[in-house]
Amino acid sequence: MNIINSLFSKRLCVCLLLSFGVFGAVNIMAQKQSLSTVHENERRTPYPQIGQTLYINPAPLLVPKNRKQADCLQFELSQQKDFSGEGNMLSKPVPWCMFNPHQKLSAGKWYWRFRSVSSSGENFPWSETMEFVMTDDVPTFVTPTFDVLLKKLSGETSRLNCFLDDKLGEARQKMYTHPEYNRMITSGREGLAANYSTDTLVSNHATAMVDLCEKLHTAYVLTQRDVYANKMVQLIRWILPSRVTDRQLSNDFYAGDLAYLLACSYETCYDRFTPQERNQMEQLMLRIIGHYYKSHFAGSMENHIFNNHLWQFTLRRLTQASLVLYDKYPEAHEFLEYAYELWTARAPATGFNRDGIWINGTCYFSANAITLYYLPALFSHLTGTDFFQHPWYKGVGKAMVYSWPPHSISVGWGDGHEQMNDKPLIIRSAFAEFLHRELKDPYAAWYTSIDQRYLMDDEMRLYRMVRPEAKEKITTLPANEPKATWFRDCGEMIANSNMADYQNNLCLSFRSSPFGSGSHTQSTQNAFNLHFRGVPVYGSTGYYMNFTDPHNLLDYRHTRGHNTLLVDGIGQPFSIKAYGDIVRMLGGENISYCLGDASNAYCGLNDYPMWIRNFANQGVEESRENGFGETPLTLYRRHIFLLHPDKVVIYDEMEAKTPVRWDWLLHSPVPFAIDKDTKLLTTRNEAKQFTSVAQLFSNQACDITQTDQFVVAPDITKAVRGEKLANQWHLTASFASSKRNRILTIIQVQPDGIKAADISRQGNRLQCGDWVIEAELNAKNPAKLFIENRVNKATFSYGTKKVSVGDHEYSLSAKEASLLYDCVNGQWKVQEMTDIPVQPTGAISKQ
């Protein structure tokens, strides 16, 4: 079981086999860093430089937009500081702010610089020289230059789905026996039934039309029946006379839909249109490309951490429009090249994420799924290089399974986490089926064997009916499936009691993310979710009725809606600067552990213009009364464990410059039974037939309260998706004002028929069933935690220099290290780890 991601194993910890009485350790101490952000929302610092992390080899060169002084930028990259030597790379002047070397960079120091170049050819002075060090452990993913793609594209008879052409003839012969044939025909009939002949504002219906076009296109490509193509032509002939306004095009979803509607019909039915109609279509597509390219894409997209809508839909749609026009219009050619370079530099998931998890929220992965399938499939075909070999794609199957298990609501984070679906969305099923088919991903294969709702998906049906199915049917998870996985780049850890038994699985999900909060994520640093039998035991609360309404701002998105901490009632701002980090993770068969550090997350008010506008537009003040403001917090570290199979332990370390009230939060879909004397918190889920018991331990007194009320209730009139806005229960354990505090929490989740173990306590030593837990709760003393299973001797230790492990005494390399003694792949091992540094891509010191 590879608990530590292999990409980082050389840096993070040394796993030592405990056998024959031999002990030894090598421990890498973390370098403390003081950063205003790990990543910059809008790039203001050139990347890469010394002190910044390289996520891929070759690393893209990125320049802030405000450093571009003329029409174009030119880049130079060398291993010689004076840029002499034969290996120098000098780019052509480009109208964007990025450069991809398109070749593997050898290990060692590299130097780079840039300069502005005017359209008349005037060269501005070179920038300062920046340097970075490439090391052998950085994952390699090399893409060809754009001219390779262009050469292949020029020989293609079709463009939009050229990667399917080689199997199309065979698919047509077999389509009548394909399990989706009848669904394809039914969907095609929906397209044939459309009638906009009496509508005077047909352009308003572009989004509805694009869905119809997709269904008609699939049916036509496979059956070759004119009736489908003629209907596509009719849709366009209805829309062309209807005026498309700039205001309509300012909606990026609408603009993208219209671009694809035109591009798909233009290519598929080219000879069925008159020359005048084709020219009208071309000019409208160029207008859409022009509307977005200069103002939203070139210079901006490569420098923004993640622009939701443009990545979800618009980039793909405008790439498709540029594909059908690139050889006729220079502006379409330029956008196609830009899209290719942008994908290489910043895709598939910010460019600073190799985990497979979706940083912008589990639910919002679905909005990106088609683009994540289509563009790399297209680029792979046109370049002869497999774009799915990027590290992110190698991890996405597993991430999908962990963050949204089968027959469960999402255990992950971000907008839509409360989706009423008791199983993953249809498009997730379709994407998993694609991963199984093309990448032979074992997690996606298992996922697909359980959830076959992809059969209802229209968008990827043409792909499924043309490409050969995977020959091997996989109905089990990999034999070495770990009980916990660390998604290091994104700052998430997910542990399961038994993923294979997903109907009875206990799932612990923890987030402390270097990407902070904002966009479609919430202020959830050092927060956890706990699910059993597919439903929350404790989870994030609120309802996603609107991106910016008062309920969203003060409950759903605010820290108070999640299982973490408030400081004097103050939460974390909606900002990338409000970051956390998972600095340690260890695991085995009996103990899954990670340590989150959210010490930087309670950092004042929102600083992003969008959120400042949103608060103003809603009339909501960022006041202390509303839970926003500066705090004197200096330390918030949360150690969290799944003691397999049914216990969770949390050990919180908190410190502040001045005394503060510590509000420890826990949220449940059902009410708590509270014993204020013993700090025992009990919830009962009647539908799923289980009980959870949590107990708090601290040397400081606390007052425990609960409510089923929000600060601002969700607006029921906005429940357009059939949501049931059930009450949710919010528990707050308010600890008396102090500069330091320690809190130990023990949670037990038991199905009916099994009673939670009684917890006995002697000072700092507690016994819970087979587990002994000893925690230093006196905040004046150094933090210390010891956990041992009395039966199998699985052991965790933190804050102690020497530890008895089995029959031996083990000396740690550092007193503050974490040690785990557990069974890994059938062998008992010692793992030791101290904090690892964050992986910055922005400013490397506080401004």
UniProtKB/TrEMBL annotation:
<feature type="domain" description="Heparinase II N-terminal">
    <location>
        <begin position="37"/>
        <end position="450"/>
    </location>
</feature>
<dbReference type="InterPro" id="IPR013783">
    <property type="entry name" value="Ig-like_fold"/>
</dbReference>
<dbReference type="GO" id="GO:0030313">
    <property type="term" value="C:cell envelope"/>
</dbReference>
<dbReference type="Pfam" id="PF07940">
    <property type="entry name" value="Hepar_II_III_C"/>
</dbReference>
<protein>
    <submittedName>
        <fullName>Ribosomal protein L31</fullName>
    </submittedName>
</protein>
<dbReference type="GO" id="GO:0005840">
    <property type="term" value="C:ribosome"/>
</dbReference>
<dbReference type="InterPro" id="IPR012480">
    <property type="entry name" value="Hepar_II_III_C"/>
</dbReference>
<dbReference type="InterPro" id="IPR032518">
    <property type="entry name" value="HepII_N"/>
</dbReference>
<feature type="domain" description="Heparinase II/III-like C-terminal">
    <location>
        <begin position="483"/>
        <end position="695"/>
    </location>
</feature>
<keyword id="KW-0687">Ribonucleoprotein</keyword>
<dbReference type="Pfam" id="PF16332">
    <property type="entry name" value="DUF4962"/>
</dbReference>
<keyword id="KW-0689">Ribosomal protein</keyword>
<dbReference type="InterPro" id="IPR008929">
    <property type="entry name" value="Chondroitin_lyas"/>
</dbReference>
<dbReference type="GO" id="GO:0016829">
    <property type="term" value="F:lyase activity"/>
</dbReference>
